[in-house]
Write a structure and sequence with these properties.
alpha/beta; Rossmann fold; 4 helices; 12 strands; 36% strand
Length: 188
Amino acid sequence: MTSGFLLMEGKLSPLWRSTELQLMNGKSEVFSLAFGRSSALQNADLIFGKDYLLGEKNVLRIIFSLVIDGEKIIRVENSSYPHFHGGLIIGNRPDAIGEINEEPLTFIYPFPFRDSSISEITFFEILDYDLVKEAYRVIKRKGIMRLIVRDKIHEGLDIGDILKFVIKFSISKVKWKDNFWVVECHKE
């Protein structure tokens, strides 16, 4: 069994902040996560990190039988997802955001969709360069990507940290709603 440790400056970290993945299976191997995280995670059987966002916990539980957050074993959080026509939801829907009404899809990198085949994608509480690049690949021209993350006061992130994950997309609007940052972007 291969254990993966999400690290930043040698300390356990959440997925969004990790700069390296250290794999342990009799020997130690280190992978840089500078240009993508999700694709490298598939090299481990169980994963250790600290202070995960809610969506990170649920998405990591999809691909690992065991996820450790600091000293706690993570179980899937059973909150409801928003519903969304023609879109994809990755991560978890906080009950505070409730404007959309249809069934979501939840999975990890790579997305099982053709290029330019999805009109909207919403990421709830998960930030990852690989996932955003995949979103860009599958979103139609003029399609929308939303990033929704709790603000720093409520154990989330500063808006500056969230905006670092907006690659290739153009930002349409940024708003703060019910203790969450909502960043809406579009594909040119």
